[in-house]
């Protein structure tokens, strides 16, 4: 088909519609922080229409090529800051018609694939209707070259239609994390196909004109298959994290099935089930649909609530190096305010959602003014709980005295005072706590235990409560069990020889031990190890006192001594429940130790914890509990002993001062000089019985049997690397680090 330049005037209306649809697509794909994003949609569309009308009303066919391009670029400049529309318009107008046909075909193919329309499309017919003199009757001289689609594209389209219809029943238009963007744009659906990058054709490499901003014709990425051979519904975020290796196909299948029942978003389900960390979910949203991040909100903010309210600032998300902010005010006014509290992060502005502002401010005020009762209608207990959750505290201590009481939070293993109040306030708070925890309000003479839940940031937080009678009144301790705090993977905990530990619990049977004092992170390490196992292919049971963090697709049992359910009886019950892995929260008596050895000896993998301070000490402890050395000889796989030390704040370098203002404390560590904790450990994997014999048959010097660095040596090593400091080592290990320091200094000298 050939069209000479005199027919260009007839082509312009069709080209106008084609360009308008293309520009609409590119505009939706723009980063949200560009200058055009701050304009109302009506103004942007009005500028676009003016530019296209100017293009259509100009006789470009009679103008020189360079003059035509200049006119198109200047006309499109008002509505297109990045020049994509101008480039596309220049290509279509100034390119000969036959070459423009190929360019249009490529652009339309990419557009159809990007919109997720899997139905068979005659691209040549559509392209020729745009370029032809009479768009209603496109010529059909050459055979059509269909868009590359999957063999069963129509079936895929039917599956997508059913998925969207099912999700609308649950109150959501889409099942992906990109649902809000898709609702706003009718031409984007949940099953949007992932384009596969193709190599340029020989014609393109030879210099043939193409549309620079339009993608190449895309193919459908292979559907992820379920175990029964059927294809899973398409989830953009789910497929992204799967292809990055962050989740397995079984985890995505389980989350997809749960979504069909609950209607929740796929990313939230993956996080709640422990398959994905919230940090990875945020990064996946940014990678698959950056506009979607505007609908998120953080649970805590460094900026005071009064400033957030005054300037209508919302913190949508945080990553290690970026904070995502939305506001109704001028960005140039808000940027220095945010920078004052987030000087260690890059500030990225996203779209503002007015409907979410009130809820965000209310959540921030609940904990930001614990000592100012005028700031919120919440009770002191509520403000104390939200303060603990915002600060990442592990425990809340309420301690009465003669005339007042003190509220303290344990953060990074150290208690800090956060509130001092009158005894009347204390009595009211204790009564509220005991009522929520279902304790006896009248009983003040003996210790009591209980617990309750609160909702925080869209999730339920468990609180374990214990009271202890003292001379001045009841001391109340609340353990905060926030599931987000145990999301890090095993490799992120800081275990030096984590590969040895993995070798142990990846065995089919045997005994693996995690040892350390109370508060050393044993539960976190245990849960992280379980999450690395195949929770679908293996039957995993745990017995804990009590269950602190729930792990989906495992059988978790809490000790209940009132009905005779203890560690020993639970292990016996597990043996009759077709187990593959048995996890013991603690081995504290002879019967439990014998049952654990029996389970390991009958072909099961047993993970257990002990309160010992070294690998050799753990073996001695098992001997004391009646375990014969000959039984350990063939069953012991790995032993990990650990403790926790605080890490130096990277924002202030451990000085505790703000990097730009030494009269202020650091925003991240609040002047404490520490901003996290890491594991210091000793670990050994026993490959065969001969290696176990070395630590079982000790007749003299313990160092003769030891072939691994001790926990104190590992702590000193991390001090040398700048991870922690000497003050922290003395706080945790005391004088036991002195011999190691002297030995290393003598060796270095």
Key terms:
749 residues; globular; 29 helices; disordered N terminus; alpha/beta; seven-stranded mixed sheet
Q: Rough shape?
A: globular
Uncertain segments of ≥5 residues (pLDDT<50)?
1-49, 51-73, 75-86, 92-101, 111-219
How many H/I helices? 29
CATH homologous superfamily assignment of the largest domain? P-loop containing nucleotide triphosphate hydrolases
Radius of gyration: 32 Å
Give the helix/strand layout.
Elements: H1 8-28, H2 41-56, H3 65-77, H4 84-94, H5 97-114, H6 123-131, H7 153-169, H8 179-184, H9 202-205, H10 236-243, H11 249-262, H12 266-272, H13 278-288, H14 305-310, E1 313-318, E2 322-327, H15 331-341, E3 346-349, H16 357-368, H17 380-391, E4 395-400, E5 404-411, E6 414-422, H18 423-436, E7 448-456, E8 459-470, E9 473-481, H19 498-505, E10 510-515, H20 522-532, E11 540-544, E12 555-558, H21 567-575, E13 581-584, H22 590-601, E14 605-610, H23 615-624, H24 629-635, E15 636-648, E16 657-658, E17 661-665, E18 674-685, H25 689-696, H26 702-705, H27 711-720, H28 726-733, H29 738-748
Parallel strand pairs: 2-3, 10-14, 10-15, 11-12, 11-13, 13-14
Antiparallel strand pairs: 1-2, 4-5, 4-9, 5-6, 7-8, 8-9, 15-18, 16-17
């Amino acid at each position: 088909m050939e069209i000479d330049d005199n027919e260009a005037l007839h082509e312009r209306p069709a080209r106008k519609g084609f360009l308008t649809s293309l520009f609409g697509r590119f505009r939706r794909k723009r980063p949200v922080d560009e200058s055009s994003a701050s304009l109302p949609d009506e103004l942007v569309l009005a500028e676009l229409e003016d530019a296209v009308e100017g293009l259509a009303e100009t006789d470009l066919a009679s103008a020189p090529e360079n003059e035509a391009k200049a006119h198109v670029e200047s006309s499109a400049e008002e509505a297109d800051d990045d020049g994509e529309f101008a480039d596309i318009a220049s290509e279509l107008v100034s390119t000969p018609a036959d070459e423009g046909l190929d360019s249009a075909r490529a652009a339309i193919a990419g557009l159809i694939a990007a919109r997720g329309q899997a139905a068979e499309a005659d691209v040549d017919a559509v392209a020729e209707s745009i370029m032809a003199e009479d768009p209603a009757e496109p010529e059909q001289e050459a055979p059509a070259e269909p868009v590359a689609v999957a063999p069963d594209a129509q079936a895929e389209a039917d599956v997508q239609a059913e998925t969207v219809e099912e999700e609308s029943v649950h109150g959501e238009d889409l099942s992906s994390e990109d649902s809000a963007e898709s609702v706003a744009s009718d031409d984007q659906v949940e099953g949007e196909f992932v384009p596969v990058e193709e190599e340029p054709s020989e014609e393109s490499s030879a210099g043939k004109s193409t549309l620079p901003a339009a993608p190449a014709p895309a193919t459908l990425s292979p559907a992820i298959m379920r175990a029964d051979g059927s294809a899973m519904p398409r989830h953009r975020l789910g497929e992204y994290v799967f292809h990055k290796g962050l989740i397995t196909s079984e985890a995505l299948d389980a989350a997809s099935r749960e979504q069909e029942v609950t209607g929740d978003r796929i990313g939230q389900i993956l996080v709640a089930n422990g398959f994905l960390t919230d940090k990875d979910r945020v990064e996946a949203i940014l990678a698959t649909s950056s506009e979607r991040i505007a609908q998120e909100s953080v649970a805590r903010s460094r900026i005071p609530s009064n400033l957030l309210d005054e300037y209508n600032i919302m913190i949508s998300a945080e990553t290690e190096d970026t904070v995502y902010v939305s506001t109704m005010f001028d960005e140039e006014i808000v940027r220095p305010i945010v920078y004052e509290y987030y000087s260690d992060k890059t500030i990225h502005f996203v779209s503002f959602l007015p409907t979410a502002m009130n809820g965000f401010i209310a959540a921030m005020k609940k904990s930001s003014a614990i000592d100012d009762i005028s700031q919120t209608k919440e009770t002191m207990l509520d403000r104390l709980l939200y303060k603990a959750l915002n600060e990442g505290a592990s425990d809340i201590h309420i301690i009465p005295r003669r005339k007042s009481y003190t509220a303290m939070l344990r953060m990074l293993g150290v208690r800090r005072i956060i509130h001092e109040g009158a005894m009347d306030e204390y009595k009211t708070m204790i009564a509220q706590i005991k009522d929520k925890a279902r304790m006896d309000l009248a009983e003040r003479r003996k210790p009591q235990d209980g617990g309750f839940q609160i909702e925080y940031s869209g999730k339920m937080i468990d609180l374990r409560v214990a009271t202890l009678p003292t001379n001045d009144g009841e001391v109340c301790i609340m353990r905060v069990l926030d599931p987000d705090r145990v999301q890090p993977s095993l490799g992120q905990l800081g275990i030096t020889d984590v590969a040895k530990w993995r070798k142990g619990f990846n065995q089919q049977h045997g005994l693996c031990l995690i040892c350390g004092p109370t508060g050393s992170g044993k539960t976190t390490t245990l849960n992280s190890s379980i999450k690395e196992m195949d929770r679908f292919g293996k039957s995993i049971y745990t017995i804990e006192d009590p269950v602190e963090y729930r792990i989906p697709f495992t059988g978790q049992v809490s000790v209940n001594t009132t009905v005779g359910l203890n560690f020993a009886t639970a292990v016996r019950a597990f043996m009759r429940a077709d187990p593959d892995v048995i996890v013991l929260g603690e081995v504290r008596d002879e019967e439990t130790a014998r049952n654990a050895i029996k389970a390991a000896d009958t072909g099961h993998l047993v993970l257990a914890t002990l309160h010992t301070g070294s690998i050799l000490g753990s073996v001695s402890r098992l001997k004391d509990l009646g375990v014969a050395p000959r039984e350990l000889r063939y069953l012991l796989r790995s032993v990990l002993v650990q403790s926790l030390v605080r890490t130096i704040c990277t924002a202030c370098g451990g000085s505790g001062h703000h990097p730009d203002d030494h009269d202020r404390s650091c925003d991240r560590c609040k002047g404490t000089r520490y901003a996290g904790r890491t594991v210091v450990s000793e670990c050994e994997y026993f490959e065969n019985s001969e290696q176990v014999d070395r630590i079982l048959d000790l007749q003299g010097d313990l160092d003769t049997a030891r072939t691994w660095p001790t926990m104190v040596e590992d702590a000193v090593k991390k001090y040398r690397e700048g991870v922690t400091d000497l003050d922290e080592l003395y706080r945790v290990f005391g004088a036991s680090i002195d011999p190691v320091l002297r030995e290393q200094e003598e060796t270095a000298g």
